[in-house]
Amino acid sequence: MIGPGKYDALCTIARELAHARGLVVIVFDGEYGSGIAVQLEDDPELVQALPGVLRKIASELDQDLK
Fold it and tell me: What is the pTM of this model?
């Protein structure tokens, strides 16, 4: 998952519009199929935080669906 992917340009636009240090874009059945794009500043703490943030989001989604 390192390096530009099929939705990297979309992720760049969204990150810049949000003035964000990092952004995750998940696409379902988009123009290039389904995919994910992740962009993070070169900050070890931010990179290390990503898995925990994604787990928290997944857990919250699970709870919302119950």
Answer: 0.80
